[in-house]
Each structure stands twice: as C-alpha cells, then as structure tokens.
From TrEMBL, chain A:
Similarity comment: family membership: Belongs to the WD repeat G protein beta family.
Tagged with keyword Thylakoid: no
SMART domains the UniProt entry points to: WD40
Regions that span the bilayer: 27-48
UniProt-listed PANTHER family: GUANINE NUCLEOTIDE-BINDING PROTEIN BETA G PROTEIN BETA
Domain of life of the native organism: Eukaryota
Protein name: Guanine nucleotide binding protein (G protein), beta 5a
Family matches, as PROSITE patterns: WD_REPEATS_1 (PS00678), WD_REPEATS_2 (PS50082), WD_REPEATS_REGION (PS50294)
Gene label: LOC112219067
WD repeat intervals: 112-153, 202-243, 244-287, 288-329, 341-373, 374-406
Source organism of this protein record: Oncorhynchus tshawytscha (Chinook salmon)
CDD domains: WD40
Assembly and interaction partners: May interact with RGS9; this interaction stabilizes both proteins and increases RGS9 GTPase-activating protein (GAP) activity, hence accelerating the deactivation of D(2) dopamine receptor-mediated signaling.
UniProtKB/TrEMBL annotation, chain B:
Sorted UniProt keywords: Cell membrane, Cytoplasm, Membrane, Signal transduction inhibitor
Start and end residues of each RGS domain: 328-443
Name of the protein in question: RGS domain-containing protein
Protein source organism: Oncorhynchus tshawytscha (Chinook salmon)
GO BP: G protein-coupled receptor signaling pathway; intracellular signal transduction; negative regulation of signal transduction; regulation of G protein-coupled receptor signaling pathway
Annotated GO MF terms: GTPase activator activity
Pfam families: DEP, G-gamma, RGS, RGS_DHEX
Places the protein is found: Cell membrane; Cytoplasm, Cytosol; Membrane
InterPro entries found in the cross-reference section: DEP_dom, G-protein_gamma-like_dom, GGL_sf, RGS, RGS6/7/9/11, RGS6/7/9/11_DHEX_sf, RGS_DHEX, RGS_sf
Membrane topology term: Peripheral membrane protein
Gene3D superfamilies: 1.10.1240.60, Regulator of G-protein Signalling 4, domain 2, Transducin (heterotrimeric G protein), gamma chain, Winged helix-like DNA-binding domain superfamily/Winged helix DNA-binding domain
Lineage: Eukaryota, Metazoa, Chordata, Craniata, Vertebrata
Cytoplasm is among the record's keywords: yes
CDD domains the record matches: DEP_RGS7-like (cd04450), GGL (cd00068)
Length: 406, 464
C-alpha cells in the first residue's frame, strides 16, 4: 500500500518512483492500514463525515494544490450531473404544442445618418422615441429617432466610445470607452450650451469600458470593463459602491434584471462565461459556461427568469436561472459570423440577434427556429435594443448608421 | 488586460481560437468543400476571344453544401469573397453574383488566417510594379493611381529603393509561365483588394479594438509581401497550439470549490416545469407584444401616428393596461399609474403603510449615497421606531437585524424588512386589491379616450 503511488505492475521496491496523486481511495486504504482495529469503525466514520476541506489535511502539503484541483473538478462534474438529471425534456419539444409563427413583415422604418464612423453602442430613452448612440470617432449623439433629428452631440476626448446609456429621467447620458472611464453628461434644453463642460467622470477602470447602464435611478451606474471586473458607482460622488470580481478575462456586456425587487445583473465575457451577480454582496450567484467563444451580449428574458447571450461562436443561447442550465441554442450552419448583440421582443417570444455578417436574425425563442433574416446594414451590426414599449428595435452598425425596425 | 493571453486553454486542453480565427476556420471549411475533388465545384479553363482563362468557376450558386436559400447563399458568398477566399477575375469589387461571372480561388498563402498586415511600402512596390508592365489588363484603376501618387509623396525619400524592389519583382514575374502568371497576378490583385479595398467597399480587415490585442501575434503576423522571407504555406494556421496559461493559486481553487459547493446546494427546477413557465409567460404577454398584436390605434413607427404614446401618458389607464396589473404584483409596482391606484385603494382601507414603506425603501436605494443616512433615519422614524406613525409589522428577526443596520445605515439597511413586507403585500394587500370593486371597476371601465381622429390625419414633419 505504501508503494501504491507507483506503477502497480512493478513488483518489489522501485527506485525513482514517480509521485502520483493519492486518490481518496488510496488515502482511505492508507488510514485503514495504520489504524488499530478498535479505532477502525470510528476512523472510517470520521473520514466519511468530514467536509472535503478537512480531508485534504491528511495529505502531504506539496500535493495539496493537485488535490484541490481534483476536488474542484469533481465538484464541477457533480454539478453538471445534477443539472443534467433535471433535463427531462427539451424546450422545443414542449413548444411543439404552441402555434408556429407566420411570416413577419419587419422593415427599416427610420435610418439615422450622422455618425462619421462605426456606431458601437446605443440606448433608448424611457420616452420610447429618443436614443443615444456612440461611435468610433468619439462622438455621442442624442436623437429623436421618430423625427430623425439630432438633438445633442458631444465629442469625447477618446476614440472608440464603446458604451453609452440613457438615464431613466431622460435628463442625462453616460458614455465611455478607451478612456477607461464612464462619464455622465446632463442634457441641457439650451442647444447652445456646451455639454462637454458639464461632464462628470464617474467610473474609473484600469482598461476599456465595454458597457454601462444606469440602475433604476440617475444616481447609480453599473459598468463592465476590459479589466475583467464590473462595478457599481454612485454618480454624484463617483464613489465605488461595489465591485464584482470573477471573470477571468475582459467583461464585454451586462444587463440588469427587470425585477422590481431583485438586485441582480448578468455579465458576459471573453472567458466564455455568463455570470449572475448579487449587487448587494458582490457575489457571483450563478455561472454558465457553454459558449465556445467570447460572449458579446447578454439580455434578460422579460420575466427575469432567464437570459439570452450572443457570442463569437455564431450562436445565441438561452439560459434559465431556475433550471440552472442552458435551455436552448439558436444557430444555423449558414451563420458562421459572431452575434454581437441580442434582445427579446416584449413577450419574450422573439429573439433579435445582430451579427457580424451585417444581418439581423430573428429567432422563435420557444421553438428554436429562425423566423426571419433582415438585410440592410452594409457592415457589422454592433448594437441592438428593443424600444421601451416594444414597438420597434434599433440596430447600430459599422456602416455608420442606425436603423429602426418595426 | 485581465490575465490576458492570445489563446486560453479550455478545460479539456484544446487550444482556443481568437474570434477571428474561428470565423476563418469556418469559411475555410466551406472552401474545402467547394474545392473537393469529387463533390466540389468544377474549376476549369475557359476559352475567351484570343486566349484562355485558366482556373475559374462560374458564379452559379449550387455549390454550397449547407441548405440555405439563394439570398443567404449569395450573402455568405459575398462575405467570403470580401474576406478574400475567392474573387471575380475582372473586378476589384469583391462580391459574389449569381450570373455568368467567373471567379477564382485565392491561394492559401494569401488567406486572412495567415495574419497578414501588409505595410504601405509593400503596397507601393505592388503599384509601382504594375506600372512597369505593359499589359492593358494591368493598368491602374483611378483609385489605385491616386494611392500611388499619395505613396510617392509619403515615401519620397525611399522611392529609389521601392522602385528597385518593384523592378526586381517585375523581373521575377516575367520569368514565370504565362498561364501561371495570369493566375498569380489575379491572386495578388485580389489580396490587395482585401487589404486596400476600393473606396466605398467594406474593409474586412478592420478589427474590433476590444479583440484586436488578442489577435495580434507578433511572431505570426506577416507584414511583408515582397520581403525576403517567402515561406509558402499551403494550409491555414487556424489550428495552432496555445501559449502557456497561468496556473491558478491555491486560494483561487479554494474559492472555486466554495463556489461549486454553493451551486450544488442550490434548488433546481426540472426542465419540463421551466419550459411550461416560459411558454405560459410568453402566451400571457403576446397580446402586449407589438410585434404580434398591433397597438391601438397603430404602431407609431409604422403609421407615423403617436396617439398610442399620448394615451399612455394620460392618467386614465386603458383596459388592457389595467388587466396587466393582474398578472402579478410586479406589474402593478412597475407601472407608475398602477402604483398610484394600488396606493389609493390601500389608503381607502387605511392599510397603506406597507406599500408606503416599500416605496420609501425603493426610493432610498435610488438616492445619492450622501443622502442615505438621513433618509434611513426618516424611514425608521416613520415606520419602525417605537411609536411610529405608520407602524408596519415585521417579524422579530428582521426587526432586530434592521435595528442593527440603522445604527450604521447603508442603502440596504431595510433589505430584510422590505423582503418580509413584499411577501406580505403579495399574499395579502395585492390579492385584496385584485378582488376589490375598486379594481374591478377600473377593469370594466370603458376607454375614456376614443378614436383619436384629430391626430391620425397629421403627419409630423420630419427633418434631418
């Protein structure tokens, strides 16, 4: 037994034996051998009732790391097994009883021209018609999308403004990108006022800002960054209220849960993980890792019980928080370019995906099939969001334009 | 960057690909199918007036293995052409058309997966070389002539060197077999069409800056087309081994273990239950989804009529809106008019303190951090302190915890109490509200604002 670390086929003592990880079984047999017979029963009881952390103390220190890793992997596999046990049916199978969707007529109803370079991000105002958009050339523009008029324009000191958001009150916008910051600009009714002068720096990251969102008030902003973290900030003071660590690489996107009571949000990153966070404690409460490449976009299903993700692996996926697993994949052999942004229609029946192949694919969330493909943009679709009342969605593209579809 | 590597090891040890490489590999798979000897597209030499056009295939789209509609196949094909995997033999603009145009495959040497980043000096050599050749077909296009003039100005000092390089290249080219030369010339031109596209065409080599740092692999990047290293690669390096990944520390693994343990302890629902829930939610809300049920009187984006938005801001809620409040307490709390009506009802029953407390706590969370301590005190005094004017009933555990929290007040001081009150409202106040005549009357009420004929005929002027 003492030689159990070595190749079992070799008889007798072997010099230069390779140290091998002592498995739990080996530990047990070792202890059984060493314990006097009377202590045997209590000994075994002790081993089986101790928590995993305590069991590792039996092992020699230089094998702790390997054992810990093995334990971590075992738990992970166990978790996958537990998740799989409850997988008694596929979503699309249950959805067979629902009527299929007919042909949709979705057209571009407005085209917003005015950016001088790639449009990277956009957000809707709660008034259902205004939007803010940001571009690679450093410009942030506020539009009345209904009339296509530009109402405000700000030039940021940096290029690649990758994130922008409208405040719930409609009185301010937040934006940031390569400057590693998130800044808030109050929107003035006076067209002549220089907005840049009133700018307020709120968030400070150590790498690019990839996404930002106001929480349910103008006073807090949630950000995600290329530095691998997300953070919650107090707008007035710029104070960091909570930081969220757990991604192993750049965080590319985030979305706040729609619940009135919940304090959670989901984030997606270059580590292919989608994490659900508790805003209050900073803890990651759920994690999903099934994508094969960067997750570019995450969006909650309207009930808040699930969320969708869009990835560079050319698929969109649906994850349910109650089932604690991926429940649908939206993909096609002919779609080989990554999905950059996703959003649901108001009822959650449709999932709109903007892709790097310049198209927008519309998916039947329940049945998993593609309902429509929308052509129109002349370069990558980089951002896509449903309007607050669900009457339309807006897409922004590297072709310098934004389109409103209904 | 956060612990960045160009690639990362996934848990099964397979090298991960950067997002661009992932797409290149998929396009190359399609190319492989297209070039398959038995099932691929026939590539042949076509006779034209006085000469032969070697190694071409026509643009008829029957070669895509994937079952996809014509429009999609054309679009995907155009993208593959734009990325430089094949090209029309007589056009700088890289698209795929479903007509008799001829196309040629690009040599793997020039595939984008080889991480080309050709420099302007190379482009200058190329354009210069073209001017040295007498063939009409090799004449520079206008935009190329402009580029050449620009480069001549930019590289004025080095021009002699560039000229020499061009001459040397032209000499090498002349030595080649005529047919081979035709093919290579066109492939070289297509390469430059990708990296220096015709003005107005998409530059597919543009990268997303968020990912570009991970795609830069200095030891793999090819910058020189006409340089000294001319290593011919006949296959794509899209599958390459990953560099070393940082090992996690002991503490990190312990955290991981804790995380997995917490996940295991979580309560999970069966897929069948979850699926039913998703179906029922969607079914319930489909009548509110403008993509399925047209809003009354119309969708503003389609009809240019904003009546539906004006109706929503009015204080009189429509029947459909009131019906929605019955779907769940969150619906009534989410809608400002719903909240108002709910409060009104509770006040009429002299039981509004729960809702007011809940609303006050929500409000505190929305305030700047500076205001929080004062607000917390105010709420405490109003709702929880001994002798509070609007005393609420909270379980003793939450009460004790809250008493503690208030001493060092943060945004979440009332979290436990709020949760308790929410549950109470959900089971008690909310159900009473729905059953009340107050709510039922709202539900039955006819819409006060009828067909808004005074709005429908006007189209708001649109400028910009």
């Amino acid at each position: 037994i003492l030689n159990s670390g070595c190749n079992n086929n070799v008889k007798g003592k072997v010099k230069g034996c390779e140290p091998r990880v002592l498995s739990l079984q080996n530990i047990l047999s070792l202890i059984l051998f060493l314990l006097p017979a009377s202590a045997l029963t209590t000994g075994i009881y002790m081993i089986f009732s101790t928590k995993p952390e305590m069991a590792t103390q039996e092992v020699q220190p230089n094998e702790t790391l390997t054992n810990l890793k093995a334990e971590s992997d075992t738990l992970k596999t166990k978790l996958e097994d537990e998740r799989a046990k409850l997988h008694d049916v596929e979503l699309h199978q249950v959805a067979e009883k629902v009527d299929g969707l007919g042909q949709f007529i979705m057209k571009t109803r407005r085209t917003l021209k005015g950016h001088g370079n790639k449009v990277l991000c956009m957000d809707w105002c709660k008034d259902k018609r205004r939007i803010v958009s940001s571009s690679q050339d450093g410009k942030v523009i506020v539009w009345d999308a209904f009339t296509t008029n530009k109402e405000h324009a700000v030039t940021m000191p940096c290029t690649w403004v990758m994130a922008c958001a409208y405040a719930p009150s409609g009185c301010a916008v937040a934006c940031g990108g390569l400057d590693n910051k998130c800044s808030v600009y109050p929107l003035s009714l006076d067209k002549n006022e220089n907005l840049a002068a009133k700018k307020k720096s709120v968030a400070m990251h150590t790498n690019y800002l990839s996404a930002c969102s106001f929480t349910n008030s103008d006073m807090q902003i949630l950000t995600s960054s290329g530095d691998g973290t997300c953070a919650l900030w107090d707008v007035e003071s710029g104070q960091l209220l909570q930081s969220f660590h757990g991604h192993a690489a750049d965080v590319l996107c985030l979305d706040l849960a729609p619940s009135e009571t919940g304090n959670t949000f989901v984030s997606g990153g270059c580590d292919k993980k989608a994490n659900v966070w508790d805003m209050r404690s900073g803890q990651c409460i759920q994690s999903f890792e099934t994508h094969e490449s960067d997750i570019n976009s995450v969006r909650y299903y309207p009930s808040g019980d699930a969320f969708a993700s869009g990835s560079d692996d050319a698929t969109c996926r649906l994850y349910d928080l109650r089932a604690d697993r991926e429940v649908a994949i939206y993909s096609k052999e002919s779609i080989i370019f990554g999905a950059s942004s996703v959003d649901f229609s108001l009822s959650g029946r449709l999932l709109f995906g903007g892709y790097n192949d310049y198209t927008i694919n519309v998916w039947d969330v329940l049945k998993g099939t593609r309902v429509s493909i929308l052509f129109g943009h002349e370069n990558r679709v980089s951002t896509l969001r449903l309007s607050p009342d669900g009457t339309a969605f807006c897409s922004g593209s590297w072709d310098h334009t934004l389109r409103i579809w209904a | 960057m956060a612990q960045t590597n160009s690639y990362r090891q996934s848990s099964n040890g397979v090298a991960d690909e950067s997002p661009n490489m992932l797409v290149y590999r998929k396009m190359e798979d399609v190319i492989a199918h297209m070039q398959d000897e038995t099932n691929g597209i026939p590539v042949r030499t076509v006779k034209s007036f006085l000469s032969k056009i070697p190694s071409v295939f026509s643009g008829k789209i029957h070669f895509f293995i994937v079952t996809v509609k014509r429009l999609e196949a054309l679009h995907l094909g155009t993208l593959m052409a734009a990325h430089g995997y094949f090209f029309p033999i007589s056009d700088h603009v890289l698209t795929l058309k479903d007509d008799g145009t001829f196309y040629r495959f690009q040599t793997p040497y020039f595939w984008p997966s080889n991480c080309w980043e050709p420099e302007n000096t190379d482009y200058a050599v190329y354009l210069c070389k073209r001017t040295m050749q007498n063939k009409a077909r090799l004449e520079l296009a206008d935009y190329e002539a402009e580029s050449l003039a620009r480069l001549q100005r930019a590289f004025a000092r080095k021009w002699e060197f560039i000229f020499m390089q061009a001459e040397a290249q032209a000499k090498v080219d002349k030595k080649r077999d005529k047919i081979e030369r035709k093919i290579l010339d066109s492939q070289e031109r297509a390469f430059w069409d990708v990296h220096r596209p015709v003005p107005g065409c998409v530059n597919t080599t543009e990268a997303d800056i968020k990912k570009s740092s991970r795609m830069k692999q200095p030891h793999k990047t090819r910058k020189s087309v006409y340089g000294l290293q001319n290593d011919i690669q006949s296959h794509s390096p899209a599958h390459t081994p990953a560099p070393e990944v940082k090992e996690p520390t002991e503490e990190e693994i312990r955290d991981q273990i804790q995380h997995w343990q917490a996940q295991l302890d979580r309560h999970r629902l069966k897929m069948s239950k979850v699926a039913e829930s998703l179906l029922s939610y969607t079914g319930q809300y489909v009548e509110y989804d403008p993509f399925f049920t047209s809003p009354e009187p119309s969708n503003p984006w389609i009809s240019d009529d904003i009546t539906v938005w004006e109706l929503e801001t009015s204080k009189e809620p429509g029947q459909q809106r009131v019906k929605r409040w019955g779907f769940g307490i969150n619906e009534v709390l989410k809608d400002p008019v719903g909240r108002e009506q709910f409060l009104k009802f509770l006040e009429s029953e002299f039981s509004s303190e729960n809702l007011r407390f809940w609303l006050a706590v929500q409000e505190v969370k929305k305030r700047p951090i500076r205001e929080v301590p004062t607000r917390v005190q105010e709420i405490w005094q109003e709702f929880l302190a001994p002798g509070a004017p609007s005393a609420i009933n909270v379980d003793s555990k939450s009460y004790d915890k809250t008493t503690q929290n208030v001493k060092d007040p943060g945004r979440y001081a009332f979290e436990d109490a709020q949760e308790h009150i929410y549950k109470l409202m959900k089971s008690d106040s909310y159900s009473r509200f729905l059953r009340s005549t107050f709510y039922q009357e709202l539900l039955q009420a006819k819409k006060k604002v009828n067909n808004c004929t005074y709005h429908c005929s006007n189209n708001p002027s649109r400028t910009g």
